[in-house]
Amino acid sequence: MKLKLLQIDDDSINNMANERLLKKMGVELEVTNFLNPSEAISFLTNSEASYDLMLLDINMPQYSGWEFLEKYASLNKTIPIVMLTTSLDPRDQNRALENRLLHGFYSKPLTKQMLIEIFHTCQLPIDIVI
Predict the structure, then answer these.
(1) Which element (helix H / strand E) includes 21?
(2) d(CA 26, CA 24)
(3) Mean pLDDT, the chain cut into blocks of 10 residues (130 residues total)
(4) Structural domain of residue 97, as residue ranges?
(5) CA separation (Å) from 116 to 24, 30, 61?
(6) For the CA atoms of the chain, what is the radius of gyration?
(7) Quick check: is 95 in a domain?
(8) CA atoms of 57 and 10, how far apart (whole Å)
(9) How many CB atoms lie within 10 A of CB 20?
(10) Which of 69, 47, 50, 49 is nearest to 58 (CA)?
(11) Does the pTM of the predicted model rise above 0.90?
(12) Who is most buried in 50, 69, 74, 123, counting CB within 10 A?
């Protein structure tokens, strides 16, 4: 299965590192990146494209990952979303646990073990090289 990944993170180096890790693990990949959450909302509002997984940062320009989730909720889309952030704030972790749209909260950088857990949690049938 080819993983259709949507990354919303203002750090392009982090996005590239995530892609590199997935490819290193043998994951066939199609990636769409947004450095700005408002552009991502606009795209999702006007697009019929489907994705298997979304990686979302919290701290971004214009508005936060939390604000993105509020806007995303009105779109009636069903992309599994995982928060991938540098935030170590327990309030963010608790808020993520309570958010029905999120399938996980992870601290950067993304690791193989995190991906294995994410694929399992999101029920993605992805073949990986361990």
Answers:
(1) helix 12-24
(2) 5
(3) 95 97 95 97 95 97 94 95 94 95 96 95 83
(4) 3-121
(5) 13, 18, 30
(6) 14
(7) yes
(8) 8
(9) 10
(10) 69
(11) yes
(12) 69
Domain membership flag for residue 72: yes
Q: Look at residue 101 and tell me if it is in a domain.
A: yes
Cis? peptide before 109, omega within 30° of 0: yes
- Find the CATH number of the domain harbouring 18: 3.40.50.2300
Q: What amino acid occupies position 56?
A: L
Residue 66 tokens read as 């939390």
Q: Which amino acid is at 8?
A: I
Taking the C-alpha atoms of residue 55 and residue 7, their distance in angstroms, rounded to an integer, is: 5
Count: domains in the chain: 1
Q: Exposed, middle or buried: residue 125 (CB in 10 Å: 0-12, 13-18, 19+)?
A: exposed
- Determine the pLDDT at residue 62: 87
Query: What does the alpha-carbon distance between residue 7 and residue 103 come to, in Å, rounded to a whole number?
Result: 15
The CA–CA distances, whole Å, from 27 to 22, 55, 85, 122, 128 equal 5, 16, 22, 15, 6
Report CA 88 to chain centroid distance, whole Å. 17
**If you search the block for the tokens 């889309």, which residue do you land on?**
77
Domain-embedded: residue 127: no
